[in-house]
Write a structure and sequence with these properties.
two-stranded parallel ribbon; Alpha-Beta Plaits; alpha+beta; 319 residues; 6 strands; 4-stranded antiparallel β-sheet
């Protein structure tokens, strides 16, 4: 039994409502970024990886759970903790506050652990400082990685399909990235390297979903009578034909991500939340942003067929 067999939903007819929703979310996100600049000093809430701080590696002589270690360091206010190396080794990423050096931060963590645990149960193996300069360089490289992925997307789809398909895909992908960043800024989710990895994963997922829809549009265009069919009707039919695949893929992906959110613990919670948000936005954009954007580009600039025919006539006349 096929899900959404012979679906005929008027997705393209609802595109203006989708534009309003997307514009509202983008304005809200950009507003949150501006507020963050004046309140926390940056348009996002950056973690130790980007703002600088102290990395302290702690080794325990006996079994230790991440949740137990987090409670020992203050519970909800504890710095990020990740398992590192052996079974009972962890890395604590603490911010380097103004007026304190790396040794003072490490000693503070040592005192917190000693107050809750036996001093002989743990040992601080190493401590390193991540300077703001390194954090700024990481920010720059993360931004370049995202821009580079968008450029490669445009080149690939322009080569694989047509240039207008590439532009529409880049618009949809940029939309997804801006919405995700806006939501992160609104709720002040801490941006760390895993968050950047999640954003890049989202871009790949959204692009894959968009290419599936575009491939069906191209197939229908090349079918008998496809070029003479009303473009809006053809694109809407193509979106409906790929809807079962879109819903099943997104549904199974979200089922796994929600399981990770519940069972994965606090270490990967932010990473999982960003992925869940990105999958939902990517599914939405492939239907309501990418396909309508393709139609808008065709409406304003044409398909390029007229130019090809004109060049063909010139070659024939020259011969």
């Amino acid at each position: 039994m096929r899900l959404f067999h012979k679906a005929k939903y008027p997705f393209i007819a609802m595109r203006r409502k989708a534009y309003v929703v997307s514009a509202a979310v983008l304005v809200l996100g950009i507003g949150a970024m501006l507020v963050n600049i004046f309140t926390i000093g940056g348009w996002q809430r950056y973690g130790v990886d980007f703002d600088g701080g102290v990395l302290v590696q702690v080794s325990f002589s006996g079994p230790m759970d991440v949740s137990e270690l987090r409670v020992a360091l203050g519970g909800a206010s504890a710095p990020p903790i990740t398992r590192f190396g052996g079974e009972n080794e962890f890395v604590i990423r603490a911010p380097l506050e103004e007026g304190r050096d790396i040794n003072e931060v490490a000693e503070g963590l040592d005192l917190q652990l000693s107050a809750s645990l036996d001093e002989s149960a743990f040992e601080i193996v190493r401590q390193e400082a991540v300077g703001p300069k390194i954090g700024a360089e990481l920010q720059q490289r993360a931004a370049l990685a995202i821009l580079f992925s968008l450029a490669l997307t445009l080149i690939y789809i322009a080569f694989r399909f047509e240039f207008r398909f590439g532009v529409a895909a880049v618009i949809a992908t940029a939309h997804d990235m801006l919405v995700v960043l806006g939501v992160l800024a609104l709720f002040r989710v801490e941006i760390a390297l895993p968050t950047v990895a999640a954003i890049l994963t989202i871009l790949g997922y959204s692009l894959n979903d968009t290419i599936v829809v575009f491939d069906r549009i191209r197939e229908n265009l090349n079918a008998k009578g496809g070029r003479r069919e009303d473009p809006y009707r053809l694109v809407n039919r193509s979106v409906n034909e790929t809807l079962p695949r879109t819903v099943l893929t997104s549904g199974t992906t979200l089922a796994v991500l929600f399981s990770l959110l519940v069972l994965g613990g606090a270490v990967i919670r932010d990473f999982t939340i960003v992925l869940i948000l990105g999958v939902m936005i990517g599914t939405y954009s492939s239907i309501f942003i990418a396909s309508p954007a393709l139609l808008e580009i065709q409406k304003r600039f044409g398909t390029g067929d007229a130019r090809k025919k004109q060049q063909g006539r010139r070659v024939a006349a020259a011969v």
